[in-house]
Design brief:
Catalyzes the reduction of the glycolytic intermediate dihydroxyacetone phosphate (DHAP) to sn-glycerol 3-phosphate (G3P), the key precursor for phospholipid synthesis. The chain is of the alpha/beta class. It folds into two domains: 185 residues, Rossmann fold; 143 residues, N-(1-d-carboxylethyl)-l-norvaline Dehydrogenase, domain 2. Helices cover 51% and strands 11% of the residues. The protein is built from 16 helices and eight strands. Strands 3-2-1-4-5-6-7-8 form an eight-stranded mixed β-sheet, sandwiched between helices. Helix 2 links the parallel strand 1 and strand 2. Helix 9 packs antiparallel against helix 10. The radius of gyration is 20 Å and the shape is globular. The termini are far apart.
Length: 344
Amino acid sequence: MTKEQTTTARIAAVLVAGSWGTALASVLANNGYHVKLWTRNAEQANDINENRENSKFLPGVKLPDLIEATCDMREAVEHAELALFVAPSGAMRDVARQAAPYLSPETLVIHATKGFESDTLKRMTSVLAEELGRSADQLVVLSGPSHAEEVIRKQPTTVVVASAMLKHAEQAQDALMNGYFRVYTNPDVPGVEVAGAIKNIIALGAGLSDGLGFGDNAKAALLTRGLAEIGRLGTAMGANALTFAGLAGVGDLVVTCTSKHSRNWRAGYMLADGTPLDDVLSKMGMVVEGVRTTRAAYELAKQYNVEMPITDQLYEVLFANKSPRMAVEHLMGRLRTHEIEKIG
């Protein structure tokens, strides 16, 4: 674009160019935004700009002409009307720190990352607020049942955007919503972030269950009791329990635990046959947020004094060499208890 076009066009920055970032960049481009898709990888940027394809993460799908990949952070965010952060949780702070000097105070900031920062156990809105020098109340989180592989092909998808300030959630809703990508608003930022992060742990467990040859009964129990764990930790962290019955909760849990597109499910499935974790992650070739989140949730459960037996067992499988089958036996052999924890 020319300098004149840059100053007058609706511009959105998307950071970074993974599968989900690219899919959301496509949504914004289809809505008329000139999208600056930032990546550290010059080869990937050239592939997107010259071949109109992100061949590493979403091969075979032609990208809209309004998407322009760049490795220049200043170019990506300086004139952006909105900045959508889709960096992995472990890289979010670094990416935000790089973007901070060039972001206008008027730029709407959204993130679509499902995880916690490993060392601080902070949610992504807290990380962004610290690095961007903004109140967390000004930020928006996007979550819900949404595989990049389906969104990029314009298959019907429904998500939620959450912010403590309704006007910011509605700005994000207006920017993203279209005929195949429906967006609801929600004021419960902690609930939406916790649900999006913890469901990846349950998806690892779903993959383990399937890999061990268990049936639908086991999968249904895992999802149901997994949702209870999500709600238990979420409400302890200040969330509204109703959020977990919505798109960010049960919706995202179902799609992540049952779909061939779920990288967390695939990782769990590979772990079931005894493949070492490092080998699984190497074969995946993409970030598996559930692994990092399991460690964080294990620590958060202790911090908030809540019981998360599924998370505990997956932690043992991932980081203490416990066999998946023994973990299942441990869960099934727990002492009897009530399903509804508070009666009356």
